[in-house]
Design a protein that fits this description.
By secondary structure, the protein is of the alpha+beta class. Helices cover 41% and strands 14% of the residues. It has one domain: Nucleotidyltransferase, domain 5, CATH 3.30.420.
Length: 170
């Protein structure tokens, strides 16, 4: 820990493990909006964020709770599993395109970048909605996992119905 007069203190968010400033700087240098995906204990959150000298500005946002309140996702279903993350990303993508954003770079923060994870399910939803985000196809989850075949057969109908309502809203 830096304590002496000749040592430099680290940023608070770096010390607490909340921000990777090297990765953030690389994303900001691209000049494109960031498609931010965060998975909390209860929901998936997707946002389109642009940089401003006064601080980051969120232009479009979609959460797992929006699936229930706006698009008819069954309230008993999870709001953060792979199908819900996919639908949240799909809703964000449709909303972003209708507001004039057509490309972005993915920002997953400090989340582990393991193939087929919920973060990449949200990415697939954004790409399926029409956003152009650079990615490799090997990180995306399979169609069976996105359709909820690994959870229950009833998920497929709920996913299709919710996806149609999202498309109808935009």
């Amino acid at each position: 820990m830096a304590r002496g007069p000749r040592q430099r203190n680290q940023y608070r968010r770096r010390v607490s493990g909340e921000t990777d400033y090297r990765r953030r700087l690389k994303l900001l240098k691209s000049g494109q909006p960031r498609a931010v995906v965060r998975i909390s204990n209860t929901r998936a959150v997707c946002q389109i964020v642009t940089w401003d000298k006064d601080g980051d500005k969120v232009s479009v946002s979609a959460t797992g709770d929006d699936l229930v309140t706006k698009y008819g996702w069954p309230e008993a279903n999870s709001r953060k599993n792979i199908p819900a993350s996919y639908l949240t990303g799909f809703a964000l993508g449709k909303s972003a395109i209708s507001s004039g954003v057509d490309e972005a770079v993915l920002d997953i923060g400090l989340a582990a970048s393991s193939s087929g994870s919920r973060v990449f399910a949200a990415l697939k939803g954004m790409v399926d909605a029409g956003l152009e985000i650079p990615h490799g196809d090997n990180v995306l989850p399979s169609e069976d996992r996105i359709n909820g075949a690994h959870i229950d057969d009833s998920y497929t109908k709920a996913i299709e119905a919710t996806k149609k309502k999202i498309e109808g809203a935009f």
